[in-house]
């Protein structure tokens, strides 16, 4: 089959091609505004340091306020991102079974943190981030230690399902 | 993008968008990497007193009513109300549904308790040692619908 021959006049292609970036700038502007609006402005770092899964709770609306943070994971308890005590699958060692149900190591580090606070050292708020599988016995020991150190207003951080 | 400047001069000035696009790209990349799309919230609780405090003065009047909820690992919930002039000690049980806590019936019971003792506004929650944190938080959130002030037994 013979190839069809075009006898039309050849169009000359433009040599100068300008990229139309105005629309791209528009898209970027919208993206930027969206991201800036959703960006957390708080100085509090509430992202968990330790490897953990926070519990999901429906319609939890309390706002996390800036205060001292305690994290309970399967293998550690962290206070203000510092190691307070090691756990063995959420369980405290035998030497951490102090009087009145407290953990001596957690109590000590919480008391140390209190001394670092500005005078008059009366802040009683504590942010608690615990793995969803933490047993009540472990939570109770950390809570008892916090109460003994003067932290009695707890904010349990959860993932809000709306 | 072009714009005309000067009156009647007919000068066409091209705005150079390339550096702006560069800035936008860097900013958007940074924001996307650092953004957290999880919606975190807090459930506020207090810590109920442990140990023995000072005894109340003799002329302090009748002891206040205290309510506590014990969450059993088997799915049962028991509510205790103590105190008052007659030193009442009343208990209620909320049976399990499919081995889980029945929070609807619990809230119904709490509503009845509030009608009977209107001064009761606080509740202390405790659980069996093996009950996991996720269930405790969900129970607390459910109790907060009726009783806004919840304490954890420390």
Description:
The complex is a heterodimer of chains A (162) and B (154). Chain A has a domain at 56-161: Nucleotidyltransferase, domain 5. In chain A, strand 2 (68-72) and strand 3 (76-79) form a beta hairpin. In chain A, 27% of the residues lie in helices and 20% in strands. The relative contact order of chain A is 0.18. The longest helix of chain A has 17 residues, at 22-38. The radius of gyration of chain A is 28 Å and the shape is elongated. Chain A is built from three helices and six strands; from the N terminus they run αββββαβαβ. By secondary structure, chain A is α/β, with parallel strands linked by helices. Chain A starts with 21 loop residues before the first helix and ends with a strand. Chain A has helices spanning 22-38, 104-116, 136-148, and strands at 56-58, 68-72, 76-79, 82-86, 125-130, 153-161. In chain B, a hairpin with a 5-residue loop joins strand 4 (66-71) and strand 5. In chain B, the strands form two sheets. In chain B, strands 3-8-7-4-5-6 form a six-stranded mixed sheet. A two-stranded antiparallel sheet of chain B has the order 1-2. Chain B is elongated and about 95 Å long. The longest helix of chain B is centred in the first third of the chain and has 17 residues, at 18-34. Chain B has two domains: 2-34, no CATH class; 46-51 and 62-153, eRF1 domain 2 (Nucleotidyltransferase, domain 5, 2-Layer Sandwich), CATH 3.30.420. With 154 residues, chain B is an alpha/beta fold. The chains are: A alpha/beta (162), B alpha/beta (154). Chains A and B meet through helix 1, strand 1, helix 3 and strand 6 of A and helix 1, strand 3 and helix 3 of B. Strand 6 (153-161) of chain A pairs antiparallel with strand 3 (40-48) of chain B.
């Amino acid at each position: 089959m013979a190839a069809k021959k075009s006898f039309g006049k050849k169009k000359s292609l433009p040599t100068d091609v300008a990229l139309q970036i105005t629309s791209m700038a528009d898209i970027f502007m919208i993206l930027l505004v969206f991201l800036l609006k959703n960006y957390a402005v708080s100085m509090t770092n509430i992202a968990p340091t330790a490897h953990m899964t926070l519990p999901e709770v429906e319609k939890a609306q309390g706002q996390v306020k800036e205060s001292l943070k305690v994290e309970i994971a399967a293998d550690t308890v962290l206070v203000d991102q510092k190691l307070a005590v090691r756990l063995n699958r959420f369980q405290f060692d035998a030497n951490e079974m102090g009087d009145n149900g407290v953990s001596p190591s957690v109590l000590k580090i919480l008391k140390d943190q209190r001394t670092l606070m500005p005078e008059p050292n009366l802040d009683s708020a504590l942010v608690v981030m615990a793995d969803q599988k933490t047993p009540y016995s472990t939570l109770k020991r950390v809570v008892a230690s916090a109460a003994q150190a003067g932290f009695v207003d707890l904010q349990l951080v959860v993932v809000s399902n709306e | 993008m072009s714009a005309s400047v000067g009156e009647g001069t007919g000068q066409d000035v091209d705005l150079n968008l390339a550096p702006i696009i560069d800035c936008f790209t860097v900013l958007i990349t940074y924001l996307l990497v650092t953004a957290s799309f999880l919606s975190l919230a807090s459930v506020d609780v207090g810590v109920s007193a442990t140990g023995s405090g000072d005894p109340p003065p003799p002329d302090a009047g009748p002891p206040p009513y205290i309510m506590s909820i014990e969450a059993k690992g088997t799915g049962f919930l028991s509510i205790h109300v103590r105190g008052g002039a007659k030193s009442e000690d009343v208990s209620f049980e909320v049976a399990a549904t499919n081995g889980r806590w029945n929070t609807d019936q619990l809230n119904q019971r709490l509503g009845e308790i509030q009608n009977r003792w209107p001064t009761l506004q606080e509740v202390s929650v405790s659980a069996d040692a093996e009950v996991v944190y996720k269930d405790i938080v969900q129970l607390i959130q459910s109790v907060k619908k009726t009783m806004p002030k919840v304490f954890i037994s420390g």
